[in-house]
Amino acid sequence: MNTKSMTFRFPLALAEEISSLAKAKGTDKTTVVVETLTKAFGLPFSTPAPVTTEALQQQLNKLDNKIRTVSEQLAELRAKTHLDNSTLSIIAALEQSIASFKSLGAIAAQESIIAQEAKEEPLPLDTKENSVFSLEVDHQKLEGSFSEEHQVNDQRQLITQLIHHAGTLEQILCAAPDLIFVHDRLGRYTYINPAGARALGFERSYFIGKTFQELDFLPEITNSFASQREAVFTTGRAVNDELSIPTVHGNRNYDYILSPIQSADGSIDSVVCAARDITERKQMETALRESEEKYRHLFEFANDSIFIIDASTHRFLNVNWNAARRLGYTRQELLQLSVDEIGLLISDERRHAIVQELRTTGHITFECVYRCKDGIEIPVEISSRVIEYGNRLAFQSFVRDITECKPVERVLYNSKK
Questions:
Q1: CA–CA distance from 239 to each of 43, 85, 297 (Å)?
Q2: Strand pairing partners for 189?
Q3: Closest CA to 327 of 252, 399, 393, 241
Q4: 262 phi, psi to nearest 5 deg
Q5: Rounded CA gap, 231 and 331, in Å?
Q6: Which of 157, 125, 138 is closest to 6 using CA atoms?
Q7: 181 Cβ contact list (under 8 Å, min separation 6)
Q8: Do 155 and 100 touch, CB atoms closer than 8 A?
Q9: What's the CA gap between 22 and 123, in Å, rounded?
């Protein structure tokens, strides 16, 4: 077995324990220490067959050839394939790890050759109180070898963590309902999630390396998106916008945000786009807008006067054009008044009863007299109901002029007498 001369200084108690164990086993202290360290590092405690320098060098040459092949394959993969940033980070870590393996192999080869030439020497004992025996060794070489081995282990752990994190991120992106894709500086797809590929009707692999032009997007979409993407590369700030694009489900509306992705040196090497389908929301907004326009049309051009009255203050919140015209006010003038300032022949008790019934049943019909701006009084029939107007409760009143009905009512009343 090839050996090295090493020096250790042990506390007295530990040295006595080693001596006791050696005496119990009927062996020397060196054997006890070597056996214990061998087990601690998980190495077989046996005497291997002699290994020649030539045989060891052949094995190292084979390993070096394999490492060189893997390095070339990684370089070719990086150059010819459009990879996402997560994969590129993993490849970089693999290349760094390979370089460390090569460095460690060179150190191991050198130490193996030295070990071949070294001769086994007896272990001198030290009788000092703070150490029992010593083994002479080149500490720098030993520490360097351990350091390299720890570095390789750390890199292996890093690669494992990177692969795990990349897998977790991919699962998250695959589960996302939003369209997510990444463009490089040339506008080429380097990544697209399943939702994005499904919406556009192709396999994910079909997009990689292609631009909007190559995917036959409309020129106005391509040009607008390219301009915004370039702005992100230039300014480093995110851009938010909406667009409508053709999909397998017809034209769909998307709200999207373009965000920069920074490389290790802080430069922006790609842009990620996250787009959310807002088609249903846009349809609802359109329907609501159409409904509001229809209501506004009915409100403005209704034959009856329409008043929207604040349920708390009884002031007018809105009135239609007919209400202002029939009372002789401009719209702005009428909105400065309250219903109490134009209504007559209603006692406080009757007004309170009307409001209470409105609050209880939600609607009421009654008669009243309104005074115009010029002082003329007109009898009216009012049909009111409770509504929500903005963020408050209000009374919506449809007011009809019943002046022409009153003589007829009077005649009918007199005839019954």
A1: 59, 21, 38
A2: 183, 208
A3: 399
A4: -90, 145
A5: 48
A6: 138
A7: 189, 191, 192, 193, 196, 207, 272, 273
A8: yes
A9: 14
Q: How far apart are CA 19 and CA 14, in angstroms?
A: 9
Task: Report in angstroms the alpha-carbon separations of 176 from 194, 265, 392.
Answer: 9, 29, 39
Compute CA distances 261 → 34, 86, 87, whole Å.
53, 12, 14
The burial class, CB within 10 Å (0-12 / 13-18 / 19+), for 364 is: buried
Residue with tokens 């020649």: 52
Low-confidence ranges of the chain (pLDDT < 50): 47-51, 100-109, 111-139, 141-142, 411, 413
Residues contacting residue 315 through CB under 8 Å, at least 6 positions apart: 309, 337, 338, 339
**What pLDDT, in 10s, does the model give residues 49-85?**
444 555 555 555 655 655 555 555 556 555 655 555 5
pLDDT, tens digit, 9 for 90 and up, residues 79-105: 655 555 555 555 555 555 555 444 444
What end-to-end distance do the CA atoms of the chain give, in Å?
139
Q: How far is CA 14 from CA 70, 133, 141, 265, in A?
A: 47, 11, 26, 51
By the 8 A CB rule, do 260 and 269 touch?
no
Residue 187 · residue 226 · CB < 8 Å: yes
Alpha carbon distances (Å) from 290 to 260, 284, 286, 287, 391: 39, 10, 6, 5, 21
Q: Residue 209, SS3?
A: coil
Distance CA 296, CA 141 (A): 89
- List the structure tokens of 13: 């108690």
Could you tell me the two tokens for 267?
């430069």
> The whole model's pTM is what?
0.46
Amino acid at 201: G
DSSP 3-state assignment of 254? strand
- Is residue 404 within a helix (H) or strand (E), and if so which, with residue range? none
How far CA 205 is from CA of 104, 172, 201, 248, in Å, comes to: 39, 18, 12, 18
Report which secondary-structure segment, H or E, holds 225. Answer: helix 219-235
Distances (CA, A) of 18 to 63, 124, 137, 331: 40, 15, 20, 106
Q: What is the C-alpha to C-alpha distance for residues 3 and 136, in angstroms, rounded to an integer?
A: 11
DSSP string for residues in 47-93: -PPP--HHHHHHHHHHHHHHHHHHHHHHHHHHHHS---HHHHHHHHH
